[in-house]
Amino acid sequence: MDIYYTFFSKKRNTDSQITILHIFDIPTIVQRMIREILLLGNPALYQRSMQVTQADRPQLSQIEQDLHDTLMEYRRVHKAGRAISAPQIGIRKRIIYLHIDKPILIINPSLLFHSPAQIEIMDDCMSFPNLLVRVLRYKCCRLNYTDRNWKDAYIDAEDDLAELLQHEYDHLDGILATMRAKDLQSFFIKPEAK
Question: Does residue 168 carry a catalytic annotation?
């Protein structure tokens, strides 16, 4: 008996846009879906997301697939994108999808800072793809979360990964990088957008 876990082991029907995920030996069908990314100014981006509960678990495979497909399409078009949060595609749940060297589904995260040291960075966002914002972020952090198998997990991060996790975590609280701008002169149009 083969047991497959979501996302890491999936069987794609090559004749269609359907992915069959085997979860605890129960096939679950998820539709491939590239969702619209909400843009700066959309009121839904400023709302606090709700905790994911056990009752939400049946929808997690489809949400993960939507986040994955949307992130991969953004990468194809913009040649950038390492993570996306559920609120960016209109899902008010505390979920982040990270895909750097492998996919990680982050559910109900909490963020801890071990040091007051900060770094200044130029932050960008899929919700404002042509804009850069100068912000301060903590240099290192720990993100505690529940994984796709409903197990406790964590990521210790520093520098650009720490910045990325803080950025995505902010989305869950309805906070955009524009709201963390260092000052009023901290907004820049990306050179390729000119």
Answer: yes
Among 36, 120, 158, 168, the active-site one is 168
Residue 40 corresponds to which amino acid? Answer: L
Phi, psi of 91, rounded to the nearest 5 degrees: -105, 110
Q: Reduce the secondary structure of the chain to three states and give it as a string.
A: CCCCCCCCCEEECCCCCEEEEEECCEEEEEECCCCCCCCCCCHHHHCCCECCCHHHHHHHHHHHHHHHHHHHHHHHHHCCCCEEEHHHHCCCECEEEEECCCEEEEEEEEEECCCCCEEEEEEEECCEEEEEEEEEEECEEEEEEECCCCCEEEEEEEHHHHHHHHHHHHHHCCCCHHHHECCCCCEEECHHHC
Q: How far apart are alpha carbons 119 and 140 in whole angstroms?
A: 9
Taking the whole predicted model, whether its pTM rises above 0.70 is answered as: yes
Tens-digit pLDDT string for the chain (194 aa): 222 223 333 333 333 344 434 333 334 455 778 999 999 999 999 999 999 999 999 999 999 999 999 999 999 999 999 999 999 999 999 999 999 999 999 999 999 998 999 999 999 999 999 999 999 999 999 999 999 999 999 999 999 999 999 999 999 999 999 999 999 999 999 987 76
